[in-house]
Design a protein that fits this description.
Elements: H1 5-19, E1 29-30, H2 35-44, E2 51-52, H3 62-80, E3 84-88, H4 92-103, E4 107-111, H5 126-136, E5 139-142, H6 145-153, E6 161-163, H7 167-176, H8 179-182, H9 185-193, E7 198-203, H10 212-224, E8 230-235, H11 240-250, E9 256-259, H12 264-273, E10 276-279, H13 282-287, E11 295-297, H14 305-310, E12 313-315, H15 320-332, H16 334-341, H17 352-363
Parallel strand pairs: 1-2, 3-4, 4-5, 5-6, 7-8, 7-10, 8-9, 10-11, 11-12
Length: 389
């Protein structure tokens, strides 16, 4: 089941892996939560849903969207009678799909299980969504050892947890090979026109960022856009509240380019071409290290602590002065930049989907061995070698 663009990107490698094995018959269900962005992401991987629930209604609340997905997924389960349902991440669609599967006594596999901040309102409602899915799931595909530890602390049966790495790294590496040719003309033009400049790439969309926190980040980015040789590219989420704030603070600012959320190949090209990234997105925190791009996390807390521990990301909050200070440091301190850019990726190695497929076979007795576990090994930069900003 997928409902949003990030879910589609992260689930696509799993679908492709399952479809490549004769033991599986795979049915893809879309809830249509973010229709345009979702369909674009699926096209990037040549995937089309077998069922489209069309649950999205303008201005509906969390309770209404939960009910619509719950009912829609229950109907699909009764028609298909699957052996297992796979959900990814922590959206409201995910917890509703898992709950519906539980009601039909169908096994649930949770891709990207075990992410936690410890604060049930940050992020909201994602933190509680993933905790609830953790209770409902039968198989927990934890992306990292830290995620596994979080599940163990909550009393999850150890044998049901598989450390797989994050599937977004699989997706990124697959698309990165094609991005230069498959990216849209707009993205290619941005990269060409910014030749010789340092691009700061930004994307923020979380509920807790809305209002003044997002405005503060925008003001910091506007300040950086006044620096010589710097250009800010901001991918503006379709949420009207995000668009209102970003356009008010950054529209018609010199050195700032606002664009509609690009297709995935274009986004990967922009990440490959940028100097560093400012975001509150979880997926970007996981993707950027594979491209050697430092990430400033504009949040007060993140469930993806591995990046900070590895030194490839830094949680900086949304206060304007602090943001400007950390962005300036990445522009001027070459050693600091090199440390963040060269740490490798603690979130995955490109083989997560293979491990998930193997784990499902093991669960159903179709394979005698558990898959190997993902283990991060930091990249060591040889003495004297530095990645220049």
């Amino acid at each position: 089941m997928v409902g949003t663009r990030p879910e589609a990107i992260k689930m696509a490698p799993v679908v492709r892996s399952l479809e490549g094995r004769k033991q599986f018959e795979t049915v893809l269900v879309s809830t249509g939560q973010h229709r345009e962005m979702l369909e674009e992401a699926l096209r990037a991987f040549a995937l089309r849903p077998d069922h489209d629930l069309e649950t999205m209604v303008a201005n509906q609340g969390l309770a209404e969207s939960t009910a619509r997905v719950l009912e829609g997924m229950a109907a699909v389960y009764r028609r298909q009678r699957p052996d297992i349902v796979l959900v990814e991440g922590d959206t409201t669609s995910v917890v509703a799909a898992a709950q519906a599967a539980y009601y039909e006594q169908i096994a649930v596999g949770h891709v990207e299980a075990g992410l936690r901040t410890g604060d049930k309102f940050s992020p909201f409602p994602e933190e509680m969504n993933r905790r609830m899915v953790g209770v409902l799931a039968d198989l927990h595909f934890a992306p990292t050892p830290s995620a596994k530890d979080a599940l163990l602390k909550e009393g999850i049966e150890p044998g049901s947890i598989f450390v797989t790495g994050n599937t977004v790294v699989d997706a990124l590496l697959w698309v990165a090979e094609r991005a230069d040719k498959e990216a849209a003309q707009e993205a290619q033009s941005i990269v060409q026109e910014a030749s010789g400049k340092r691009l700061i790439l930004a994307e923020l969309h979380r509920r807790e960022s809305l209002g003044e926190p997002l405005a503060s980040v925008c003001r910091a980015l506007a300040t950086m856009a006044t620096r010589d040789g710097v250009e800010v590219v901001f991918s503006v989420h379709k949420n009207p509240k995000v668009q209102e704030t970003v356009h008010r603070e950054l529209a018609r600012r010199p050195g700032v380019r606002l664009l509609e959320p690009p297709d995935y190949a274009s986004w990967v090209l922009l990440m490959k071409s940028c100097h560093f990234i400012v975001t509150d997105s979880g997926g970007i925190q996981e993707e950027a290290p594979s491209l050697g791009k430092p990430v400033l996390v504009a949040r007060e807390v993140t469930e993806r602590k591995e990046g900070a521990e590895a030194g490839v990301s830094l949680v900086v909050g949304t206060e304007e002065t602090r943001l400007v200070q950390e962005m300036e440091r990445l522009l001027t301190d070459s050693n600091h930049y090199a440390r963040m850019a060269s740490g490798g990726n603690p979130y995955g190695d490109g083989h997560a989907a293979e491990r998930i497929s193997q784990a499902i076979l093991y669960y159903f007795g179709q394979s005698p061995t558990r898959p190997d576990e993902f283990c991060y090994r930091a990249v060591q930069t040889p003495p004297g070698e530095r990645t220049q900003p």
